[in-house]
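To close the section, here is one more complete example, presented without commentary so you can practise reading it yourself. The ligand is dinuclear copper ion.
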Amino acid sequence: MKVHLYERVWLWMATAMIAGFLGAIVFSASHGAVHPPSHMETVDPTLVSSHPDFSRPRVETQPDGSLKVVGTAAMYSFHPNLVRVPAGKKVTFRLTSPDVIHGFQIVGSNVNATVVPGYVTQLSTTFERKGEYLIVCNEYCGLAHHLMQARLIVE
Ligand code: CUA
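Output:
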């Protein structure tokens, strides 16, 4: 079968683009710690306020020295609203929403997740740079979406 030269050129260009996109995914996963969701865990969104874990927003030090931040993203605030963590230690966030979908982005870090009612969003990172970070909701969630923010202090 004879394939026209232009056809072949475009086929190879499309193949090269796919290879490039795959390479970008592999590179960002290995060098930028950009990962798909780690697990699936559900929680009844109507029972978040009485949930044994999520009703107590907190920062907890684990036996291995790492930290666990448990909280919620709800219209229009994050709980806890101020998170203090030490630099260079692994921090695991566990979040859920009792109402609508929210975003959880820590500006200047690789943390950018979606918090979906009914599910637990869990992710881990390590903050090497000390300072104050802004946490914003980056999913439109209602009239005061733009006011939904919190602070993270790495010390
Ligand atoms: Cu919460 Cu936008």
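Once you have examined the tokens, check your reading against these statements. The CA atoms of residues 11 and 103 lie 39 Å apart. Strands lie at 58-61, 67-74, 77-79, 82-85, 90-96, 102-106, 112-115, 121-126, 131-136, 149-154.
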